[in-house]
Design a protein that fits this description.
37% helix, 29% strand, binds S-adenosylmethionine
Length: 225
């Protein structure tokens, strides 16, 4: 199942004001806009936002620089705030602020959708060679469990599995480093080991050299109370 299909199982997006916090390359922003949502993609800097802006093909989405813990958006301006693999990137002591900000920008009856990668599966094993995210991912789960403090009720949880297919080791490097450019140094230092793991883990994809990896995800749907 892909991210959009999982999201659409749980919340409706057409005609809604949707915020994608930490939108990365903007694939979900464009997909949501194509589904009829009015989308705003948020990234932490102009450089982190550049790919999403560049790839946008006139989707109608808006983009802004800001952080989860201080969204550059008006109070009561959104129906859905999406954190797709983003919450564990917020500094742990600021994660509760991120949920409070989501609650602030959501209209009454709005939804915060938190999708986090689980600490299992061969994609986790592979990417852990660059950065071990166990602690920050656990902190994100604890924050979601305490969402009540932000005025959000945990309404529903759901797990699904993404299949991440990468053409070659350079495609893995591009994906991992796009999240955080400081990872380049570790990736290059460990390239031979990572290349071995890339060949050993996962399974062959449909194209020569391509490998596909399992990445289980957990979603929590939080509603304003
Ligand atoms: C793993 S990527 C996920 C990107 C995209 N949502 C996706 O699923 O492909 C995490 C993103 O969170 C962004 N990020 C890091 N710290 C953040 C913060 N404090 N607030 C919002 N986004 C942040 C990063 O720049 C990065 O693009």
């Amino acid at each position: 199942m892909d991210d959009l299909a999982a999201l659409e199982r749980l919340v409706s997006v057409s005609g809604r004001d949707v915020v994608d916090v930490g939108c990365g390359g903007g694939a979900l922003v464009r997909a949501l806009a194509a589904r009829g949502a009015r989308v705003t993609g948020i990234e932490i800097s102009e450089s982190q936002l550049a790919a999403a802006v560049r790839e946008d093909d006139g989707s109608g989405a808006r983009y802004a620089v800001g952080t989860a813990e201080r969204l550059p958006l008006a109070t009561d301006s959104a129906d859905l705030v999406v954190f797709m693999r983003t919450l564990h990137h917020v500094p742990p002591d600021r994660m509760p602020d991120a949920l409070r900000e989501a609650a602030r920008v959501l209209r009454p009856g709005g939804v915060a959708y938190i999708a986090e990668p689980m600490t299992e599966g061969d994609f986790f094993e592979l990417t852990s060679m660059v950065e071990d995210e166990r602690e920050v991912r656990a902190a994100a789960q604890r924050t979601v469990a305490g969402a009540g403090a932000a005025g959000l009720d945990r309404a529903e949880s759901f797990e699904y599995e993404v299949r991440v297919c990468l053409a070659d080791l350079n495609a893995l490097a591009a994906r991992v480093i796009s999240v955080d450019p400081t990872r380049r140094e570790v990736f290059e230092a460990r390239r031979p080991e990572i290349a071995d793991a890339f060949a050993r883990l996962g399974e062959p994809g449909g194209r020569p050299g391509e490998r596909c990896f399992r990445a289980p995800m957990r979603v929590d749907v939080l509603r304003t109370d």
